[in-house]
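As noted in the main text, all predictions were made from sequence alone. Below is one such record, for PDZ domain-containing protein.
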Amino acid sequence: MSEVARVKIIEIDPHSYGESVGFKKGDVILKFNDEVLTDASQLRTLVAYTVENESKYLVLRGSEKLTIVAKTQSLGVTLANISQERIVVKRYVGKQEVAINAFKDDAERMASDGYVPTNQTWAEGSYGCGGFLIALLLCFIFVGILVFIYMLIVKPDGTLTVTYEKQSEKSIQAPDDPVETGKVCPDCAEVVKEAAKICRYCRHEFVQ
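Prediction:
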């Protein structure tokens, strides 16, 4: 699996300039003056050749993005390249609407780290043969019949599987760019655009 490098602060000197302007150990520096960073040496070169009085750093701290404006000088930090997987697969379990909402919320956080969804599949939940066999055996008593009817009517949680791909540095979205997400058709389980009123695969009409 291919990987990409990013710039991370692994140590920060106490009372250093970097600490005074808000940098913290563990911060990942994504951009310097709107230029996407690929490794620590690139950042050092940019700092060395920057003549501006102030520079802008786009920093990822946990799942939060923030901008730090500081004078272009030594920050007093130790930088290292970290590797991130090119392909990430995530699963969101729950009823279809719950799983899609969880995906939408997570897609924004993933986009901040340069990942965009490239494939989505929805799988309906299933009790499996074992569950139905147990329900059939319990049918000799009244509660078994109720369990069997419940299993026929109520479906267990399904799984929305989403594949995220790390975008090349030239194609990473700007921090404020909206993340376009889709929705899953309840009839054919294909992904269509969020604004679609009719599924282009099975012609299912979405309720607005």
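The helical segments are 17-20, 40-49, 96-112, 128-137, 142-153. The first helix runs from residue 17 to 20. These features were considered when defining construct boundaries for the mutagenesis experiments described in Section 2.9.
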